[in-house]
Amino acid sequence: IPAEFDDNAIVIIRECAFKAGLLNDRYSQNLRFITEPEAAAIHCMKSLKEHNLSVGAKFMVVDCGGGTVDLTIRQLLEGEKLSEITERSGDYCGGSFVDQEFLKFLERKVGSSAISFVRENHYCQLQYMIQEFCRKVKMKFTGVQSEFENIELELDELCPVLEQYCKGEYRDNMEEVDWTINLKFDDVKKMFDPVIERITRLIDSQLRSCDNDCSTLLLVGGFSESKYLQLKIKEKFSKKVQLISIPPQPVTAIIKGAVQYGLREEIVSTRVLKWTYGTDIARKWQQNDPIDKRRDDGLIIAFERLAKRGTQIAVDEKVHRAFLACDKTQRKMGLDLYVTPQDDAKFCDENGVKTIGKWSIELPDSLNDNDRSILYTMVFGNVEIQVTALNSGTKELFKTSFDLDM
């Protein structure tokens, strides 16, 4: 799954798979999730062997896709296992943003309104024109001026409908050149440069996050096949990183790595949390708490942190929290889970804090005084959060269900 997918998105995917008949049980462990950058890193382990990287070596995987670019630094462990070292970073600066720069170039030739009308009413023709740009220009561009020859694109063939939307001075200018645009070296370079600059900033930031202790940089994803992108990355980072490599068929790295993970899940040893997780608890109001949050019973609902963003944890590391049922008549006990990008949230209604789900368990008809403590066990190290609940007195394991908060 894309690295930017949150926990709600994962629940939706699982629900869709169940409703489509792909799962007999909604919570079946036959469906497992892995992020695209992690899958790419697993596939890249083969390349690491070829370059004789030793146990303990740290490497960065830069997944350059069509829409997003995702980066993490991982460490090679004993037994051919991987440990995530840094928090994932990424941005919307993949190969399709070069296409957007091409459209901006066209807007200066035919007018922005013409491109807008084609996008709204003739999207297929627009996409065909972009595909031809990719085939003839984008993937062939090396960034070496001596290797470049000016390229002509005949708009009346690539996007015939464009003529009817091109007006005024734009139309006069295009008719003078028979609806042909001439792409020069600098024109194409300017389409790439703002996108590549954003990618190199991401790489630089990741290197700083590990004090430049990274020996290898691996490029995967469809956009990584761009010779110009490869050139610029090597120019900027060859003195900081010992090896910069592009595995064979980088566009297939994610799917191959996902299959390898499915066959051997223990290959992933640790992950770095991208969120701070917490729940809501009732505690006594204190003098430094907001007065408007104090309840009539003198309590306040506060954010209780369970796991901190940026923490490296084992994939099977467990977080335990015990809660008491209020009385013998209570038949359900819930656990609301919240996420926030902040480290120090105090209340669940702060900006940036959001509910990602609600777990609930059925309690037995008779609940003795000694059996009112319920121990929740949570695993945050997997891509998909896992929760179980145990009666501390009877040792009965309760079925824990997840309700998506939408």
TrEMBL record:
Q: Which superkingdom, per the lineage?
A: Eukaryota
Instruction: Kindly provide the name given to this protein in its UniProt entry.
Output: Actin-like ATPase domain-containing protein
- Record-linked PANTHER family: ALPHA KINASE/ELONGATION FACTOR 2 KINASE, HEAT SHOCK 70 KDA PROTEIN 12A
* SUPFAM superfamilies hit by this protein: Actin-like ATPase domain
Pfam assignment, any one: HSP70
Tell me where the transmembrane regions lie.
Answer: none
InterPro entries found in the cross-reference section: ATPase_NBD, Hsp_70_fam
Q: Does the keyword Nucleotide-binding apply?
A: yes
Name the species this protein comes from.
Glomus cerebriforme
Which taxonomic lineage does the organism of this UniProt entry have?
Answer: Eukaryota, Fungi, Fungi incertae sedis, Mucoromycota, Glomeromycotina
Q: MF terms per GO, please?
A: ATP binding; ATP-dependent protein folding chaperone
Q: Is Nucleotide-binding one of the keywords UniProt gives this record?
A: yes
The UniProt keywords, alphabetically, are: ATP-binding, Nucleotide-binding
